[in-house]
Amino acid sequence: MKTFVPKKDDIERRWWLVNAEGRVLGRLATEVAILLRGKNKPEFSPSCDTGDFVIVINAEKITTTGRKTEQKVYYSHSQYPGGLKSETLKGLLADKPEEVIRHAVRGMIPKNKLGRQVFKKLKVYRGPNHPHDAQRPREYQF
Question: Which domains, ranges and CATH numbers included, belong to the chain?
Answer without folding.
Answer: 15-64+94-139 (3.90.1180.10)
